[in-house]
Amino acid sequence: MKKILQDLNFNQLEELVLSLGEKSFRAKQLYEGLMRGKKISEINVSPALRAKLLEEYEDEPLKIIKTLTSADGTEKYLFALADGNVIEGVLMKYKYGNTQCVSTQVGCRMGCKFCASTLGGLVRNLSSGEILAQVLVVNALYGGLKDKRSVTNIVLMGSGEPLDNYDNVISFLQNVSASGGINVSARNISLSTCGLVPKIYALADENLPVNLTISLHQTTDEGRARTMPVAKKYTIAEILKACGYYFEKTGRRYIFEYSLIAGENCDKEHAEGLIALLKGKPCHVNLIRLNEVKERNLNTITEKDAYRFLGMLEKGGLSATLRRQIGADIGGACGQLRINYLSD
Ligand code: SAH
Q1: What are phi and psi of 265, to 5 degrees?
Q2: Which residue among 30, 61, 246, 258 is the one 20 to 30 A from 7 at the CA level?
Q3: Active site residue: 101, 108, 243, 334, which one?
């Protein structure tokens, strides 16, 4: 595979252009084109520069090879990378704008029992440019420009564990929020992690105030370890402490994801457990009914029971919402589309 031009920030692109013996205004043209989701071969620079770039860089680091549209308007994309690997992404349409869910790795090595992304293990990390290109391509698909974006919010909740690909994810966050670029503000970006504690501290120190989301899904370490192997490494207490540090450094309230799994985590004792853990903390709980994955033997609960669980949390003083289950008819859960594609 060749190199990925979208890995470079504007200054690096300018250095590259100068090193190829071209004038620096060419870097502006290139950057403008890349931010509009164009291939190198489509960007209006001199043919000589284009040819030099194409010798070393992928013309198109990623392209959409399949789109599924849900009855609720959610779109799911299967992207092919330049080396033939596939990843997936989702665009959720809300009144206030469009939220894109991006992948950070091909596969995942965290092993969560409810998740389809981890079924084949980790294949490889995505480069920062491959993560960025997902946003650029989808933004362009909807006619979004650099300054008038059609993708307004980003969540790092596709395949992969973002903090397990730390350096590339940090570069992506810097590049996607750069003021001269597509400029999605860190406040409109959420990073979701299964709880890699040392990396949460590192992220807090990056001065990139993204919304931190933790996949909690349980109220005790033993219970959590049943579905999330990472729980054997980091305790809930350690995670909460790291979240406290994140709040101290960024002033951002943090969020807990809690997927409701029948017989596992949504009885009265779990509501009480959550209240005991989280009451009084600057956080919010997002409940979501499990998206059932056919390779996994776990079931969701009824909507009525989900609302009952939500009611218990609210009564206990927690700020919580039950997320609308969107795109369930198109394999909305992480990794489902890729798994279906790979097993076809
Ligand atoms: N690795 C990161 C981000 C990717 S997953 C993390 O663990 O947070 C995004 C969210 O979807 C996580 O909260 C994850 O636990 C949850 N998830 C994965 N599979 C799911 C499923 N089948 N149903 C409901 N939520 C799921």
Answers
A1: -145, 15
A2: 246
A3: 334
If pLDDT is split at 50, 70 and 90, which confidence band does 142 have? confident
Element (H, E) at 288: strand 283-289
Helix residue spans in the chain (DSSP H): 10-19, 25-35, 47-56, 128-141, 166-176, 197-204, 221-227, 236-250, 268-278, 303-315, 336-343
Full-model pTM: 0.95
Give distance in angstroms: CA of 57 to centre of ligand 1.
Answer: 33
For range 148-169, the mean pLDDT: 94
Q: Is 88 a catalytic residue?
A: yes
Q: How far is the CA of 155 from the centre of ligand 1 (A)?
A: 12
CA distance to 72, 215, 296, per residue, from 128 (Å): 30, 23, 31
CB atoms within 10 A of CB 230: 21
Q: Residue 216 Cα, ligand 1 centroid: separation in angstroms?
A: 10
- Tokens found for residue 334: 């992480």
Q: Give the C-alpha separation, 112 to 67, whole Å.
A: 26
pLDDT of residue 93: 87
For the residues 201-225, what does the mean pLDDT come to? 97
Q: Nearest C-alpha to atom 7 of ligand 1 is from which residue?
A: 194
